[in-house]
Structures are given as C-alpha cells and as structure tokens.
Amino acid sequence: MKRFVLTAVAITAAFSLAQAQSLSKFAPANAMFAIELNDLNGAGKTASSFVAQFNKLRLNDILGEVTGSSAQERRELDAMLKDFNTLVDREGFVGVYLSPKTSQAGFLLAARPALGSDAKMRAWLNKSLNDARKFSRVSSFRVGGLPVYYAGGMYYGYEGGLAYAASDQTSITEFLSRFRGQTQNFKTSSLAGSNNYDEVMKNVGDGNLRLYADLRNVTQLARAAVDAFDPELPNGIKLEPILDSITTLGRFGGAWKVTPEGIDNTTLLVPEKRGADAQLQRLLTPNTKLDLKAASIVPASAVGFSTSANNPQAFYGWLSSLADRTGLQQGGLDVFFKQELNIDVQRSLLSWMTGEVASATFVGKGATQSLGESVTYLGTTDERAATQALETVLPKLLETGQKLAGQRNTAKFSKATLGDTTVYRYPIADQVTMVAAVKNGFVMIAQSDSALLSALASGARLETSQNYRSAVARVPKDALGWSYGDTTATLKSAAGGIGQILELALPLALDLKPSTARKLSNGLEELLNFLGDRAGFAVSWTEAAPSGTKTRSFQPVKW
Questions:
Q1: Which of these, 337, 339, 340, lies nearest to 350 by C-alpha position?
Q2: Rounded to the nearest 5 degrees, what angle is found at the Cα of 213, between the Cα atoms of 207 and 215?
Q3: How far is 334 from 318, CA to CA, in rounded Å?
Q4: Which phi and psi angles does 549 have, rounded to 5°?
Q5: Domains in the chain, ordered, with CATH?
Q6: Which residues contact 465 (CB under 8 A, 6 or more apart)?
Q7: pLDDT tens-place string over residues 423-452
C-alpha cells in the first residue's frame, strides 16, 4: 500500500511538473514549422475593448450568408469557435513535421484548455469518438498511461488538462512519452531542447504568438517530392539551386505579445552557415555600413516611412548566379541584358545606387488615396547617371517586361514637368502608370502624380517632426534600417475610404445583400476608427544579431 501511494504521488508530481512546462519541450525536434499560443485568455483580457468591437462585425453571420448556411449551422460554428478558444485558452502548439518513414508532411497538435473545462473536454472527446464509430473502427492504446485513440487516420486523446492529436503514431508517442518523463528511448532532444530551436527562440523572447520555421527541413520535404515525382521542367531548368537557396535561408523565429502598452514583436532570421548557396549566405550576413538620409528629404506629411541599407550589387550578383545555376539564363543576367537589350546593368543602373532604399506613404482625400499611396526612394551618388537610366534604360526594361507578360501597350514613355521637377511617365497597363523623378540625391518612384507631388512637396521634413523623432528614439545607432508609422492617421484615413469602396464591391465579390454589405463596411469603418483613436506612432528596426538579423517593432495601443 505504501509503495502504491508513493508511486501515485510520484506520477502526480511528474504530471504537475510537465503541466508547468512549455508544450514545445515535449515535441519532436525535427519540426519544419511550429506555432505556439500562450495565455490567449490574458491577451484577450488586456485587449478586451478591441475584442468587443471586433465581435460587433458578426463575421459568422456574414460567412453564413455567403455560404448559404442555416441559422442552426451558424450557431454550431459559433459553438466551435468558442470551443477552440476554450481549447487553447492557456497554451496551444502546432508542429508540422517531415515523417522519416513516408517522407511526407505530418502534424502534431497539443493544447492546455481553460481551467475548469475538464468535463467539457471529455464530453467533446466522447462525442468525437461516437461520431467516428459510425464510420470506422476506433482502436486505442496508452502511452505513459495516457489514452490515445485512432480513428479516421488521426491519433488523438485528452487526459488531465492536456489535449493532443497527431497524423502519425511516432509523433504522438514521442510527445506523450516526453510529457510523462520517459525520454530514455530517444537519442535526440525535444524541440525546445534542441540547439537549432533554442538559438532562435531564446532571442525572440516570449509572446502570446510564437512562430518557428526550419527551412532546411522544408527543403528535405521538397527534395523528397522531387525524387518521388521527378518533374520535368521546361528548358531543362534545375530545381536544386533553388532548394539550396531555401536551405541557406536557415531558420526563422518570431514572437508577438499583447501588453498593457501595446503590441511588441521580435523576429530573427538565422542563415545556414554551411548553406550550399554561399553568395546568398554572404548577402544575408549584415555588414552594410551606410548613412541613411531619406528622412531628411521626405516631407513631414508622410504617415508611414521606412529606410534600409542594402547591397544592390551583391543582390544582383546572387540573382544572376542563380539564373545561371538553374539554367534559366546561361552565363547569368548580364548575358541576357547585353544580348537582348544592349544594357550594361552594372554601369547603367547599379553604379549610381548608394544602397539606401526607402519608402514613404501619403494619404489624400479621394477614396483610393485615403488608403495610402507609397513612394519608393533609391539613393543615388550621381543624379545625371540616374536621370539617364530613367530616360533610356527603364523604358526598355518595362517594354520587355510587358512583352514577356503578353501585354500590348501602345502608350510610350513621356516626360512632363511638375513644379520645377522633370517627371518621367511609364504606362504599365490600362489605367496604370508609373511616374518617377530625380531630386535631392534620390530617385523617386510612384504609381500616381498625386503621390509623387506629395513626395516633392516643400516645407518641413520628416526628420524634424517631433512625433517621428520620439518614435525613432528607440532605434539603436547601428541599426541597418528602421520604419515609422503614424498609425492613427493611417487608420483614420483608411476608415474614410474603405466604407464606400466595400459597400460597392462586396455585393459583387461575395454575393451579399446590399444591406449586409453596408453593415460590414460600416462595422469595418467603426473598427478602424476605434483603433485609430487608440493607436500611436509605430516604430520598428533591423539590427545585426550574433547569429543573424533581428527585427524589433512596437505598436503602442491604449486598450
């Protein structure tokens, strides 16, 4: 009796300890992708005012109208959504794996439901088992004392505040064995215990939503598919160099967290040091030192802005090499441009670029302009050479692109004057024209005259704006780039234009009643205004990390 009591206490203690650990600590290590949900209940409470406003949209009713669902079916969908919220209330985990036996993708799901929902979860399990028995045989077994049921090609179960499911027996067995502390049969660590995962995720920190991707495992799946199906690509194009490039991208991690002050986000890209694409590996290793100047010439009226240091020469070199290695263009892109277009890309385009690439967003009064129009800025060391490129090189490139796309456009490149600036117009397609100008050490490219006029406006510059200066005060001096956004102005402006656009488009696109489309467009307008009243000035930046490139961002919100 004493031994039984001690054993029961030990099992209970082990179970309690496991419950206190992240579910990723029990998942297999060879994940291609992993999604982690943490404390969604807490995040929902913090952002409760937004959740309440969002629920006013009644998207379930609109979806029901689009699909022709009955009132009963809509109520069932509502119940399913509530059940899902209960299921992942404390924690959720989704992993996508490459099965070593089948070389196919499989999945593993695990969740810690809301406290006090044990009876509800057991009822859900019993119902799903009874439904499954109507169509097939249900088998069962135990792993570490935890029940696993197999039906409909899926393994799943629930016990003691833990729900779990997987597409293959290997994954579910390893997960539950690790959960019960039975790790002696595994030669490798768990996902959270692996160096690959730890190096990435410890640098992005905790969050209500966390993402992890190992693109090296993704390419294993792709290579298995290529070996299995042996696809014949046109003109002898090779897939292997593309897969090498994807492998070289390495691993990615991200974390998003709702806080009382707003939304924090951190992402990290860790390139594969032993990747087969050496050029891409060097390109992904941040070493560009550049004095970023675009904020000094962008008007203060911009509601969004970003700038970054790039290496266009290295990027073009990698792209040219990839074209050669895949067989898409033997000898690289230089051969194509010189033979087909008589263009020396290195001399005509790349030689005058500083490497700074920036973007600014402006809003206007029209329905389309109110959603924001962007202008791209390319830094130049030689305005005369840049102007020559706009007059001779760019028209050739656009005309060739139109021919390759099968487009016929008889409109020709033209020049005009806006104020004291020469503007170059390039017809892209019907009703679509690209406009460009060179001024203040930058080539400016936009999709409309109104956007370019905003970029050419005189007056205060963005770098002198107090809101901009306060927002970017967080940005470290050695940042590789940063962005700034007046979220309030952007959302308020969008709210003014999106309503009338959706009210006209939705009945045609989704076969909605005009009254329903009006309700949805009004609801979205109210939601955007609601957020606009509470949002502040967003900022993000990219910096070099010991193992890769890290991006940090913060969006203040007065919940």
A1: 337
A2: 165
A3: 12
A4: -125, 125
A5: 2-39+90-193 (3.40.1000)
A6: 300
A7: 999 988 777 889 999 999 999 999 999 999
